[in-house]
Amino acid sequence: MNAEQLEKTFQDKVDAEIRIEPRDWMPEAYRKTLIRQISQHAHSEIVGMLPEGNWITRAPSLRRKVALLAKVQDEAGHGLYLYSAAETLGVERETLIDEYLYGNAKYSSIFNYPTLNWADIGAIGWLVDGAAIMNQVPLCRCSYGPYARAMVRICKEESFHQRQGYEIMLTLCRGSEAQKAMAQDALNRWWWPSLMMFGPHDSDSPHSEQSMKWKIKRLSNDELRQRFVDVTVEQAHFLGIAIPDPDLRWNEERGHYDFGPINWAEFWDVVKGNGPCNRDRIRARRKAHEEGQWVRDAAMAYAEKRKARQTAAEAVASPTPVATYS
Ligand code: FAQ
């Protein structure tokens, strides 16, 4: 088949909802787009451990500490599934990690904001994990098999994370006036950055059109953002706290909430590395990576030892046939 036929067969498969697997032919641009998106997603999960990790030692009770610890560990697991999915596309994990620690690979803008008090842990679970689920459930139907399969488990875990965050918010909102004020303050600070997580407007999103044609993305950035607003506003009403947006109102005609303009200058500034915590986040990740070198070395040495032992055992079990003379 020539390149054109290969491309057509590929697109026909995608259109027929047949998953693309690692050994299947795929256009180079599809492979590159997936490596970009999956690795950015993996980096986000790993950097995303930092804002909440900051509160593990200060959680207000043992139950809260255990739940937060489990959540942060889950994020590490998500990063690992995602790096593994990216590796099926023929790229080394070390290369990807180098690009984000020492190059300029992106990770989600949201993790460059600080967690100032315990209510922020509730707001992250409710809003950030809520936004993550909204964006990631459609990815379970992504055309690339390994990414879609990784997303199934990730979404189940994100769903638990969202609930634990909402439950923290509910507890604060049913507590003292001061606790409710903390919940409101956290919502005020996390609302707009959460809306930014979905990425630029569709008209300013260079990758969306092609990614939707390839069924990597199923819904556009703006569609997902609108779904998130519609669901979350009702949850805020239940909590009894106010979304910090004077333009927010139900639009009967559209059947959706209208909301005010997003500060895209702030978004791009954060993406370019100038958010409140970008430098701290990268510094913390580099330190953890460099201090963990001995663990990776030890794991590699152990794997090599095991392999050598296994090869030796196999040689004893099935010795090379020796020529016999009669
Ligand atoms: N931050 O053309 P588009 C989580 C970049 S995981 C930074 O629209 P695309 C779990 C974009 O990369 C959160 N950069 O791009 C958790 C592109 O740059 P490039 C992460 C952003 O790929 C919870 C440029 O702008 N989730 O939260 C952002 O079609 C709690 C143009 O944008 C995922 O990664 C942003 N927010 O759509 C963990 C989900 N938005 O590469 C711990 C998978 C856009 O050209 C605690 N990813 N950019 O240099 C996706 O769904 C997509 O990649 C989008 C962006 C929707 C993020």
Bound ligands, each once: Phenylacetyl coenzyme A
Mean pLDDT: 96
Indicate the multimeric state: single chain
Strand order of the largest sheet: 1-2
- Given the C-alpha coordinates, what overall shape results? globular
The number of helical segments is 13
Order of helices and strands: HHHHHHHHHHEEHHH
Q: Structural class, please? A: mainly alpha
Low-confidence stretches: none
Helix content class: 55-70%
Proportion in β-strands: under 5%
Can you summarize the main beta sheet?
2 strands, antiparallel
First and last CA, distance: 55 Å
Q: What radius of gyration results from the CA coordinates?
A: 23 Å
The total strand number stands at 2
Description:
The protein is an all-alpha fold and about 325 residues long. Helices cover about 65% and strands about 0% of the residues. It contains 13 helices and 2 strands, in the order ααααααααααββααα. The protein has helices at about 5-15, 30-45, 50-55, 60-85, 95-100, 120-135, 145-175, 175-195, 210-215, 220-240, 265-275, 280-290, 295-315; strands spanning about 250, 255-260. A two-stranded antiparallel sheet has the order 1-2. Strand 1 and strand 2 (about 255-260) form a beta hairpin. Helix 4 runs antiparallel to helix 7 (about 145-175), helix 6 packs parallel to helix 8 and helix 6 (about 120-135) crosses helix 10. It is globular and about 90 Å long. It binds Phenylacetyl coenzyme A (FAQ). Phenylacetyl coenzyme A binds next to helix 2, helix 6 and helix 9.
Task: Considering the chains and any ligands shown, give keywords for the structure.
326 residues; mainly alpha; 2 strands; globular; binds Phenylacetyl coenzyme A
